[in-house]
Amino acid sequence: MNQSLRILLWDLDGTLVRGKRLGTFKDYTAPMLELVFGTAGCLRDLVVSGMTDLQIVEEALRGEGITREHIYLRRDELRRCYLEEMKRAVTTGAHVIEPIPGGREVLQAVHEHPRYASALLTGNIEPAAHFKVEVAGLAEFFTLPGAFGDESFDRRDLPASAARRINEYLGAELKPEQFIVIGDTPSDIACARHFGARVIAVATGRIHSAEDLRAGEPDALLPDLLDVDLVMETLAKL
Asked: Is the pTM of this model over 0.90?
């Protein structure tokens, strides 16, 4: 496999898509938790940016005595109810999923470039992630397997999972440094470093400033995805 190949592991919320209104995530997650576990715990008080969905559930319900083991046992039901509540919110217009400005143009540019291929690396549970990219009109760019928030309570586990699947899919032995995580939170930077991947931080999220991201020492920091040429120039250096 070509050593110049770079696999771009894209975060989703805040990086490629976002809700039109801040906080709508909790509007459909709280009913899901109440359906599956009988309580939403302290969800309303949590700052969930950068967490995996399993981690969010654990943090929200810890005070209710609900353990990881309980969550794993209900994981299939959690996935089903989560997607149902999200689709209901989108269908009724309570939750509007928008593509981040410039995101589609960047995805198109890397899709057309032989050096790059894109995969999702997101804290969303897998069916929710696929639903969001479909609603945002970005699904066509993600043909490689990725890693998702129903796999682990720790986001740092996800790059290795994605790399294992992608190597198997491609019949390759790509090295960690051939993967580039692109995300809008310090957790994206941390998970890339844990695996040994490169990382581009983008200050497109609503929670973390460029200064917050710079403190994590990413390989590159971009203000947004609006300048396709700048994004491509940045990728070319990694």
From this structure: yes
